[in-house]
From TrEMBL:
<protein>
    <submittedName>
        <fullName>NADPH-dependent FMN reductase</fullName>
    </submittedName>
</protein>
<dbReference type="InterPro" id="IPR050712">
    <property type="entry name" value="NAD(P)H-dep_reductase"/>
</dbReference>
<feature type="domain" description="NADPH-dependent FMN reductase-like">
    <location>
        <begin position="3"/>
        <end position="86"/>
    </location>
</feature>
<dbReference type="InterPro" id="IPR029039">
    <property type="entry name" value="Flavoprotein-like_sf"/>
</dbReference>
<dbReference type="GO" id="GO:0016491">
    <property type="term" value="F:oxidoreductase activity"/>
</dbReference>
<dbReference type="Pfam" id="PF03358">
    <property type="entry name" value="FMN_red"/>
</dbReference>
<dbReference type="GO" id="GO:0005829">
    <property type="term" value="C:cytosol"/>
</dbReference>
<dbReference type="GO" id="GO:0010181">
    <property type="term" value="F:FMN binding"/>
</dbReference>
<dbReference type="InterPro" id="IPR005025">
    <property type="entry name" value="FMN_Rdtase-like_dom"/>
</dbReference>
């Protein structure tokens, strides 16, 4: 897994929100990519965070926790995140039904490769 992270140009970290935080599988992946600390494959890697929740507030807590974990691990995280609330209603045929949300998601992904403000 560390080799895959090291070989990537950037990271798109996607998580569901479970009990108000990111998935333990996603958190564990971030943790493994941050070790060994002196040669962490995640260090300096640009990343964006996307999350979904069945609740209406767009997985806000999961996104904040994912950003914090990535920053502590040494990733260069784009501050803006993307969240989907009421995720069970947000998709049809594998696509976002809200055109504005889809455009916002596309714009965020397009920011990968651009300098991240410190």
């Amino acid at each position: 897994m560390g080799e895959a992270v090291a070989a990537s140009d950037a990271l798109i970290v996607v998580t569901p929100e479970y009990n108000g935080t990111l998935s333990s599988v996603v958190k564990n992946t971030i943790d493994w990519a941050s070790r060994p600390r002196e040669a962490a494959s995640i260090h300096g890697k640009q990343a964006i965070v996307l999350a979904a929740s069945g609740a209406p507030y767009g997985a806000e807590w999961a996104r904040k926790d994912a950003v914090r974990s990535l920053q502590i691990a040494g990733a260069d995280v784009v501050e803006d995140t993307f969240g989907i609330g009421a995720s069970y209603e947000a998709f049809a045929e594998g696509r976002l039904v809200d055109g504005e949300a889809d455009a916002a998601l596309q714009a965020l992904v397009a920011r990968l490769g651009a300098p991240v403000a410190a």
